[in-house]
Amino acid sequence: MALREYETWLLLSYSDEELKRVKLPMPERVRGAKEALRRLVPDYSPSEHQLSETIGLDIERVRARSDSFDKLVRALGALCGRSPPARPQVP
């Protein structure tokens, strides 16, 4: 499934417990990922928070949870002439 909002990947970096606490058990099915992210990051603003959220992104967790992120990792590997490591299992 192609994702329309970068923030969906940011949501997928959070633990299952954190997502359940704010009633977001399946972030890839949520429309309005920016608004959903505000449940975890008060007053979330892409220009203010996107860099720090991206720095904290758990790449293995997001890759395990998201087909679209895995596709990005594989495409970047192909562009660099490298095979990415095996996809992690869903935690």
What does it look like?
This protein is mainly alpha-helical and 91 residues long. It has one domain. 53% of the residues lie in helices and 0% in strands. It has six helices and no strands. The chain has helices at 6-12, 16-21, 33-37, 46-55, 59-65, 67-79. Helix 5 (59-65) packs across helix 6. The mean pLDDT is 91.
Short description:
With 91 residues, the chain is mainly α. It contains six helices and no strands.
Uncertain runs with pLDDT below 50, 5 residues or more? Answer: none
Mean pLDDT: 91
What is the total domain count?
Answer: 1
* DSSP helical segment count: 6
**Using only CA atoms, what is the Rg?**
13 Å
Distance between the termini: 20 Å
Which structural class is indicated by helix and strand composition? mainly alpha
Order of helices and strands: HHHHHH
Write the layout of secondary structure elements.
Elements: H1 6-12, H2 16-21, H3 33-37, H4 46-55, H5 59-65, H6 67-79
Keywords:
single chain, 91 residues, mainly alpha, 6 helices, globular
